[in-house]
Amino acid sequence: MFRKIEPYFFLAPALIVLLVVFAYPVVRLAILSFQRPSAGKMLFVGTANYRAILTDSVFLQAAKNNVALLICVPIMVVIALLLAIFLFERIRGWQFYRTTLFLPYLLPIAVVGLIFSYIFQLSGVLNEFLTSIGLGKLALDWLGSTHLALPTLMFVIVWKEVGFGIVLFLARLMSVEEDLFDAAKIDGANWWQLQWNVTVPQLAAVIEFFTIVSVITMLSWVFGYVYVMTGGGPGNSTMVTELFIYLTAFRYNQMNIASAVAVLLLLITGVLIFLELRLRENSTIVEAVE
Amino acid sequence: MRSRYGFKYWLGMSVRQILVVFATLLSLFPVYFMAVSAFKTKSEYIANKWGLPVSFYVKNFETALAGEKFFLRFANSAILTVGGVVASLVIACLAAYAFARMEFFGKRTLFNVILSLMVVPPVVMIIPLFVSMVRWHLVNTYPGTILIYTGLLLPFSIYLMTNFFRAIPREIIEAARIDGCSNLGIFWRIMMPLSAPAVVTLIVVNALWVWNELLIALVFMQKDELKTLMVGISALRSRNYVDIPATMAGLLVATIPIVVVYIFGQRFFIRGLTGGAVK
Known about the structure:
The complex is a heterodimer of chains A (290) and B (279). Chain A is an all-alpha fold and 290 residues long.
């Protein structure tokens, strides 16, 4: 009898913490999103909060920006794949390059964001450099213009996140049977054919994994970059959903509106999380519990 | 056959080398820029933005450490990091043992649910958590914030430890059981000592995560004397007057622990962050 319930003693602390930090808040969140405060009490208002955000121009701008950030995903996949392949071909000093290319991924976003905002300042390093090599015309207000701020932010996100892809792909490449590459070479495949017909199919599962993780990042883990570098500006041009939730809830004290946005975000990431879970179950990249 | 190692091969290798070197310089430049700026006077920074420092002005560090309550913020970050890492490690190892070496109802489903929590964005939970924490008087306290960090670290920690425990041969456990060892005894005397590498990996990765975290710290540690290093840093940009070299000195001190640990424990970072995604 004891053996039957014993596992739950081992699980109990984890389950309690997960209930407090994940399960209970999600239920509360859903309830909050259908309520509004009125004379010190919470009243159910149906879908009023949802209708309000769907006509809120700042929220719509934020959602649009998150979608725009998705452009980073294919860029990251391609860069990470190319660099991982180069390192795998054992170019001289590949271990050193692996170490340095991975470093940005470990640095705090707050630190990275601040350094980059000094680099991209109107009188910053980048513009001084451009001017000094005679490209003064290209010295633009990288973070201060409504057209450029989002692309600049994307550059920083790719700069920091791509290292994860490189290391992930490289680790997988190293476990591919060497014979596969040799066989293709003997068959006379050129470099591009080799990558396209052998490397990419062999890495398919890890590429999918990295793609899904990156999509989730772009939709719901970019708060730090925006908060530190632009604060959503200029003129909401870099507003993202997370920052919108944060500001609405904690600066403008509209917890219920913010909750409705959070519910939408959770639903969207939920679909992606489900996809990722399927991937983990069906593929050999990750070992699941038997 | 010769042509393969002739001009075309040489050209291909050069192109690769150039691209990789370019990417490496790009990765390192911000770190280099931070390090050299930290040793310049303000006027030198304006005159010479990317060159090596001439004046070697170490007073920047004094300015940075004295202002902005640097030590206090550093200590706050350290307390939260140690608390979150230790709590999540103990709790995750216990759960992982059950997942890896015990049979119970709903094991697979439960494990998958926990896995899926790994990518749930924290921003979704902060509003209801904040409402609850206010009611429980846990906002602006170390235990409250550590509880949240522990919860957020658990899914990945359980996942990593479960995979590691499963790789430990069953024979060892069976032998111990025949010798009369209880589950708790097996866990404590056999599984944990054998898992030292995984534990180190987990500590390193989780510590990095808490140390770098911004959103939770911003919402749950609002009082000035409780703010973390990253929150302090993120507030620097919005101020009107900024002493950039002194700021860079502060950033450098905040970053050095990470870089040092990375240099000495690189394989733990790489193994941990690729999270067993590659077998």
